[in-house]
Sequence to fold (112 residues):
Amino acid sequence: MKRHDRVRLRHMADAMDAAMRFVEGRNRSDLESDEMLLFALVRAIEIVGEAASKISDEARAEMPELPWASIVGMRHRLVHAYFEINRDILWTTVTEAVPPLAEHLKALLKDE
Fold:
């Protein structure tokens, strides 16, 4: 894998780790009352999507199990429709989808 792709994968993993730290000890209702939490989660997921969008086609082909289009699509939605963020989807993404994805990325990065 190209160095550039490894760097972007590391950015993705780091942003996912941050998002998971942000929700530790929190619950879904905190997104309604804690503006800083909302902004932090949005930014972390934006970084994940932006980094994913910069991964080469060759590297993506080596990792077809990753939902590339969904990751990048979520980033686009957060950036371009920031006024219509579905907080339920954001919370579910961070608490359910991100942890296994982060573990998978860490394993990929460790193997190289």
Notes: The mean pLDDT is 94. The CA atoms of residues 69 and 106 lie 20 Å apart. Residues 3-111 form one domain. The chain has one domain: 3-111.
